[in-house]
From TrEMBL:
Family: Belongs to the transcription factor STAT family.
Stated name of the protein: Signal transducer and activator of transcription
Cellular localisation: Cytoplasm; Nucleus
UniProt source species: Sterrhoptilus dennistouni
Lineage top rank: taxon: Eukaryota
């Protein structure tokens, strides 16, 4: 079943979440019409590879054209209209930046997987629940409402300033008219009346000046309060959501909404600044005793400039954290001399700033690393599909500097994966007489020199972003805090949903909790140390919990991904639990679990019944990636044979737990249909007998312990038939019970 088909079967509350991230940037009708094709492409890799992204974009347009031809023949006018609109969108919006559509589709697919994983969980995890609280949603709506109200107030004040300007012009005209009269005329009764009227007009001017200044003051105060409270909280929440999304959590949205708020506030502040400049012009033409403008205007202008400085400083953010294109699901882990990408955005989107802001990227200030490649670029509105003012560095490389002794610091396999670094960015904004220096930094990154360090480096990234909101605590691992086990388990489930397409259910998470704690207790408030997670070996093992788990992720990704996505791999179940599950099942019922003693190993255990009615269990030696590279796991399950004491080979695997016929579960994943038994003369090229690999084990009925299988024996069904004709059962038994010598 395709991922999209699974999505369509979700409950309405989950479908509403899906609806939120499909918009005009990637219309849902395209996701629906091209579901299987979209899911078969590697959008994550294309998101960091421009050439690959361009090819996928062109292929996507071709797919849309094919659909357009089909619906044109069906004369579906509405769908024809929508597809033409989508085609125009794809060509016009993403042709100059194909990586953006790859990012959008990759994020949508990932978010679908996360929602599917969440739907399979009995309750929402604590982290996800905190990120989606109703309080946060209400604050978002309040911020947008207040920003809109402030913008309206600033525009209304514009009208008041214009009225004040008109009033002062009338006053100037009447005043100059009186001044132009002869001295004799000035003593007339009419002139005296005019002077009284002029005084009344001056009083009105004074009142209106005070009123305008008060209104400007209120607008400034409202902006100040909004920036100090709700807007700051919204920005911090977005940064926290970004942290969580980087380690596999829910897709972080809301940046476009923040950009709208920041931009409207900046426009309002610049509007207020122009109003204060207009008042200064009016002041030069007319002032009087008690005039409020010279007293209040300087203070208000100083406050406006202060707010603009703070608004611009907060608006400079890292939109997409540093990430190597080769490992798109492991952001913030950077390998020396390997390119990485990072994207920044200025949330104040003003046309005057397009191509006017040059951003410089640097790393740390300890002089251990330097950045090679293009590290100065101009922000612009042309590269982003949504027209945001942004800049993306695509060709940066970290390089470790040589020490004074002529050697490199920690270069090599022993580079410390708990050492945190920061990529910093600086620029300067010059606008309307203001000069504002801006700085921001990425979340802490871990430098590695060898890809073998990637798992432990990624563990550091997970632990940091799970445990702290501080975006720049580079000394975090000097004394890393403990993490709440319930939150850690939620993050571990995200690793599976984001990396291999299916998260973990409560039973699987319980098994991981027991493995971490060593006993079965409630883990809601249990605090787990960093050492327990990533540094201390598991009891009786030569590896840590994280190394064990990472090896399983790698095994799933490379060798059993379709089976895992279909939910047929129970995986995380202890030996004791698997026997409890199987003991009352039909003989031949089996389940698949990950090995606890072998890194990156998967095994299967089946239940059997002896002649006396006793139940027995058999587990095969775990298959690792080396063996699975030679034969697909689904084919192993199909072709697996055991030779019992009577020397009759048979496949003991009948039903996948709880009671799914094996071929029904795995049939679509078989690489080919098993070959029929044939004589040597019946097939094969150049006189050879066609062969297939068949996994064979030998089990003796009087054995109380399960035996490990022999290595995969290169025995075809036809060869086995020939052997039965020419060899005795004893000879065959001897052959299959002996391991082959390595070649």
């Amino acid at each position: 079943m395709s991922q999209w088909s699974q999505v369509q079967q979700l409950e309405i509350k989950f479908l509403e979440q899906v609806d939120q991230f499909y918009d005009d940037n990637f219309p849902m009708e395209i996701r629906h019409l091209l579901a299987q094709w979209i899911e078969s492409q590697d959008w994550e890799a294309a998101a960091n590879n421009e050439a690959m992204a361009m090819i996928l974009l062109q292929n996507l347009i071709i797919q849309v054209d094919d659909q357009l031809d089909r619906v044109s023949q069906e004369k579906n006018l509405l769908l024809i209209h929508n597809l033409k609109r989508v085609r125009k969108l794809l060509q016009g919006k993403y042709h100059g930046n194909p990586m953006h559509i790859a990012v959008i589709i990759s994020n949508c697919l990932r978010e679908e997987r996360r929602i599917l994983a969440a739907a399979s969980m009995p309750v929402q995890g604590p982290l996800e629940k905190s990120l989606q609280s109703s309080v946060v949603s209400e604050r978002q709506r309040n911020v947008e409402h207040k920003v809109s109200a402030i913008k309206n107030s600033a525009q209304m004040t514009d009208q008041d300033v214009k009225y004040l300007e008109d009033l002062q012009e009338e006053f100037d005209f009447r005043y100059k008219t009186i001044q132009s009269l002869e001295q004799n005329d000035k003593n007339s009764t009419l002139i005296k009346q005019e002077m009284l009227a002029l005084q009344s007009m001056l009083n009105s001017l004074d009142y209106k000046r005070k009123e305008v200044l008060n209104k400007i003051g209120r607008v400034i105060h409202e902006i100040d309060m909004l920036m100090s409270n709700m807007l700051t909280e919204e920005l911090l929440d977005w940064k926290r959501r970004q942290q969580i999304a980087c380690i596999g959590g829910p897709l972080h949205g809301g940046l476009d909404q923040l950009q709208n708020c920041f931009t409207l506030l900046a426009e309002s502040l610049f509007q207020v600044r122009r109003q204060l400049e207009k008042l200064d012009e009016l002041l030069t033409r007319l002032t009087y005793d008690g005039d409020p403008i010279p007293v209040q205007r300087p203070q208000l202008l100083e406050k406006v400039n202060f707010l603009l400085y703070n608004l611009f400083r907060n608006s400079f953010v890292v939109e997409r954290q540093p990430c190597m294109p080769t490992h798109p699901q492991r952001p913030m882990v950077l390998k020396t001399l390997i390119q990485f990408t990072v994207k920044l955005r200025l949330l104040i989107k003003l046309p005057e700033l397009n191509y006017q802001i040059r951003v410089k990227a640097t790393i740390d200030n300890n002089r251990r690393f330097v950045l090679c490649g293009t590290h100065v670029k101009a922000m612009n509105m042309d590269e982003s599909a949504n027209g945001s003012l942004s800049v993306e560095f695509r060709h940066l490389q970290p390089k470790e500097m040589k020490t004074s002794a002529g050697s490199k610091g920690n270069e090599g396999p022993h580079m410390v994966t708990e050492e945190l670094h920061s990529i910093s960015f600086e620029t300067q904004v010059c606008l309307y007489g203001l000069t504002i220096n801006l700085e921001t930094s990425s979340l802490p990154v871990v430098m590695i020199s060898n890809v073998s360090q990637l798992p432990n480096a990624w563990a550091s990234i997970i632990w940091y972003n799970l445990s702290t909101n501080d975006p720049q605590n580079l000394s975090f691992f000097n004394n890393p805090p403990a993490a709440t086990l319930s939150q850690l388990l939620e993050v571990l489930s995200w690793q599976f949903s984001s990396y291999v397409g299916r998260g973990l259910n409560s039973e699987q998470l319980n098994m991981l909790a027991e493995k971490l704690m060593g006993q079965q207790v409630s883990y809601n408030d249990y605090q787990l140390s960093w050492a327990k997670f990533c540094k201390e070996h598991l009891p009786g093992k030569s590896f840590t919990f994280w190394v064990w788990l990472e090896a399983i992720l790698d095994l799933i990704k490379k060798h059993i991904l379709p089976l895992w996505i279909d939910g047929y791999v129970m995986g995380f179940v202890s030996k004791e639990k698997e026997r409890i599950l199987l003991k009352d099942k039909t003989p031949g019922t089996f389940l698949l679990r990950f090995s606890e003693s072998n890194l990156g190993g998967i095994t299967f255990t089946w239940v059997d019944q002896l002649e006396n009615g006793d139940v027995t269990f058999h587990s095969v030696e775990p298959y690792n990636k080396g063996r699975l590279a030679a034969l697909p796991f689904a084919d192993i399950l199909r072709d697996y044979k055991v030779i019992m004491a009577d020397n009759v080979p048979e496949n003991p695997l009948k039903y996948l737990y709880p009671d799914i016929p094996k071929d029904k579960a795995f049939g679509k994943h078989y690489s080919c249909q098993p070959n029929e038994v044939s004589k040597p003369s019946d097939g094969g090229g150049k006189g050879y007998v066609p062969s297939v690999f068949i996994p064979v084990s030998k089990i003796l009925n009087d054995s109380t312990e399960p035996h490990s299988p022999s290595d995969l024996l290169p025995m075809s069904p036809s060869v086995y038939a020939v052997l039965r004709e020419h060899l005795s059962p004893t000879a065959i038994e001897t052959a299959v019970s002996c391991k082959l010598s390595p070649s």
